[in-house]
Specification:
Blueprint (H helix, E strand, L loop, with lengths): L8 E4 L5 H12 L3 E6 L2 H13 L4 E5 L5 H15 L4 E4 L14 H29 L2 E6 L12 H20 L5 E8 L2 E2 L1 H14 L5 H11 L9 E2 H11 L11 E4 L9
Parallel strand pairs: 1-2, 1-4, 2-3, 4-5, 5-6, 6-9, 7-8
Helix pairs in contact: 1-8, 3-4, 4-5, 6-7
Length: 267
């Protein structure tokens, strides 16, 4: 399927590693001019180098989008490199540890700065231009925890819940403009960090020394899943890339859960 992304400019925040990197690479493979965002040049440029080596078009942009000045710096540098932003993927965010007893006010504020306000800043920077051109895609990266939050990391789940609510509000604000707004909410993703953490736990429990040996125990002991496997970063990236495409023009104000059926709900 041709996703018709040739000639589109996409900015993927936090795309210097993990799922964001996979999204940036997928967008570039489909022909989008891809702005790879990070906080340090070396890992961010490494992603760009890989995209270019594979035949894609990409540029690295550095800036702290948890501040107004940093977000403006990122937006302006992206536009200077590739022109107006057609697709904004608000991928950046962190899942910092915490509990109801130990997470202080500063931890809650930090969670909202990273997971909500960074997306607000970047969205406000691009939405005016998208409205003028009559086309755009704004995609948030959420979590199934906004549907079924855990007791742990309350500041994280609360902030991601706010991101889901914000998606619907923004979709209503931009109704009829040619811009779509959606949120993609993964469950547990098989990132390098997740794989290393569970393999270490599995080794300690005697489950095995490789991911293939440990994964069945992860599914049995830590999560429910109807597919029998942990979701891959590439699977998340492929969904995001489709939602970002002209082909997905009928998707609006959707919370698209990609979790192998972990949240098997009728909503």
């Amino acid at each position: 399927m041709d996703l018709q992304l040739n000639g589109k400019t996409a900015l993927v925040t936090g795309s210097y590693r993990g799922t964001g990197r996979a999204i940036a690479e997928a967008m570039a493979r489909e022909g989008a001019r891809t702005v790879v965002h990070g906080f340090d040049m070396e890992p961010t440029q490494a992603v760009v180098d890989g995209i270019v080596a594979a035949g894609g078009e990409a540029v690295a942009v550095i800036g702290d989008i948890t501040t107004d000045a940093g977000a403006k710096e990122v937006h302006d540098a992206a536009v200077a490199a590739f022109g107006p932003i057609d697709i904004l993927i608000n991928n950046y965010g962190t899942a910092d540890a915490g509990t109801w007893e130990k997470s202080e006010t500063s931890d809650w504020i930090e969670a909202y700065e990273k997971n909500v306000l960074s997306a607000v800043r970047m969205t406000r920077a691009v939405m005016g231009g998208m409205k003028e051109r009559g086309w755009g895609r704004i995609i948030m990266l959420g979590t199934i925890g906004s549907t079924e939050p855990a007791a742990r990391m309350p500041q994280y789940y609360a902030s991601k819940g706010a991101l889901a609510t914000m998606t619907v509000s923004l979709a209503k604000e931009l109704a009829g403009t040619g811009i779509t707004v959606n949120i993609v909410s993964p469950g547990l993703i098989r990132t390098k960090e997740v794989e290393e953490r569970f393999v270490a736990q599995g080794r300690a429990k005697g489950w095995g020394d490789t991911w293939d040996e440990v994964e069945p125990h992860v599914l049995k002991n830590f999560m429910s899943n109807l597919t029998g496997k942990v979701t891959l970063t590439q699977e998340v990236a492929d969904l995001v890339t489709f939602v970002a495409s002209p082909r997905a023009g009928a998707l609006m104000a959707m919370n698209l859960r990609i979790d192998g059926g972990t949240t098997a709900l009728v909503v």
